[in-house]
Design goal:
five-stranded mixed sheet, about 400 residues, globular, about 30% strand, Dna Ligase, domain 1
Length: about 400
């Protein structure tokens, strides 16, 4: 076991934690957990005490699975009001050949010149490099006098980051890197066919995010305040049941495309006034389809606002994408470029883990750019994880964010 990484995705409905190991260039899953989220609304922390308890419970479950304490983590931060700025910088090469330090210095220069005062730096997405005016795929080790970098700088409002950072710090967890779902969702599914213009639609519990990509890089995004909870509320109102039961009906019984539903397939429920009734799959599926169609029509409008260029792919991910038959409805509303995301990491096939897994893959890519090797656990913990018979499946906010910023630049 060589390098181990932990990622957390803090959602409105669930806290998802994923732990993976990278060995011989292969990513293997060690453990995942998805625990009920409290104190979080539309992806934003509204009650720090409840949110902290939820996150603590998620880490406790993972630690129980692995037998080690989680001390470091990569975290997703909300995509609300994210800014994507193309940054160009030129620096003299410090020495005979380009090093990772030269690349980081060029990025620093671009950030200082372009970042907004109320925003926090999240990441740089490399577009291309030039050494003495000549484009190179990887400048490290190339000889020359000047290095030009072009990248997309992603920033978000400071509150998006500080709320997450302060809670993790309060739990004694070191935040080593941050990302937005718009950066990492595509990476969970990335292949050679996804290098053109396309979109990823992450359908969550209370929000749906729409991310536009070009050449595999996030270039813009939108967040819609609609998701699976809206469907739950309609089911609860229609059939007079509580929200937990409504969610079970949606996930275990209903179809997203009512054309395939069976009128004779019945589900027995106890209503709020203690009556026992049966509902048909067709009836509830029509309700679910109507709500999803309304959401997808809004998504379609936002997609056209993001770009008028033809899309090569549209990937649907997030927890709501797990609904049975949802691909038929998405094709009907959004067209034939749609596919439902399929995570290839064995043990984490559920699309609700796409952001957390993407965080780890992107983090590993950044390490390669900076010529770094890094693991989030100690040698002693590695020995614990390697032991047979393991059942695997306060500082200020400014200081905390300084650590993250410093980590990106290899300080």
């Amino acid at each position: 076991m060589e390098h181990v990484y932990t990622s957390i995705d803090i959602g409105s409905d669930a806290i998802k934690v994923v732990v993976c190991e990278l060995t011989k260039n292969r990513l293997n899953l060690l453990a995942t957990t998805s625990t009920k989220a409290m104190g979080i609304k539309r992806g934003l922390i509204v009650d720090p005490k409840k949110a902290s308890a939820s996150i603590s419970k998620a880490f406790a479950e993972i630690e129980d699975m692995l037998g080690i304490e989680i001390k470091k983590v990569i975290a997703s931060v909300p995509t609300y009001f994210a800014e994507y700025t193309v940054v160009n910088s030129q620096v003299p090469i410090n020495g005979e050949m380009v090093t990772a330090k030269d690349i980081m210095e060029a990025y620093r220069k671009g950030i200082r010149k372009n970042i907004l005062p109320d925003h926090e730096f999240v990441n740089m997405l490399p577009i291309d490099f030039k050494v003495d005016g000549n484009i190179v795929e990887d400048p490290k080790g190339k000889s020359g006098k000047t290095l030009d970098t072009r990248a997309i700088m992603v920033t978000v409002p400071k509150k998006n980051v500080y709320s997450v950072a302060s809670i993790l710090e309060g739990l004694g967890i070191e935040l080593v890197d941050i990302a937005t779902g718009s950066i990492t969702d595509l990476i969970a599914y990335k292949n050679s066919k996804l290098n053109n213009i396309g979109m990823v639609i992450n359908m969550g519990a209370e929000t749906t995010s729409i991310s536009l990509y070009n050449r595999g890089l996030a270039i813009n995004s939108r967040v819609i305040d609609m998701g699976g909870f809206d469907i739950d509320k309609e089911i609860a109102y229609k059939f007079k049941v509580n929200l937990d039961e409504a969610k079970r009906i949606k996930e275990r019984f209903a179809l997203a495309y009512s054309h395939n539903a069976d009128v004779n397939n019945l589900y027995e429920i106890i209503t709020d006034d203690k009556r026992k009734i049966r509902i048909s799959q067709l009836e509830v599926s029509r309700l679910v389809e109507n709500e999803l169609t309304e959401l997808l029509e809004i998504v379609k409008e936002e997609m056209s606002n993001l770009t008028n260029k033809p899309l090569q792919y549209i990937i649907i991910t997030g927890g709501l994408s797990n609904l049975e038959n949802i691909e038929y409805l998405c094709h009907k509303v959004l067209g034939d470029k749609v596919s439902i995301g399929k995570i290839k990491l064995i043990g984490a096939r559920d699309n609700k883990y796409s952001t957390a897994i993407g965080n780890i893959i992107y983090f590993i890519g950044n390490l390669k750019l900076k010529s770094h090797e890094y693991t989030m656990i100690s040698r002693d913990d590695m020995e614990v994880l390697s032991t047979p018979n393991k059942h695997l499946v306060s500082t200020s906010n400014d200081t905390m964010l300084g650590k993250v910023f410093g980590y990106f630049f290899g300080e």
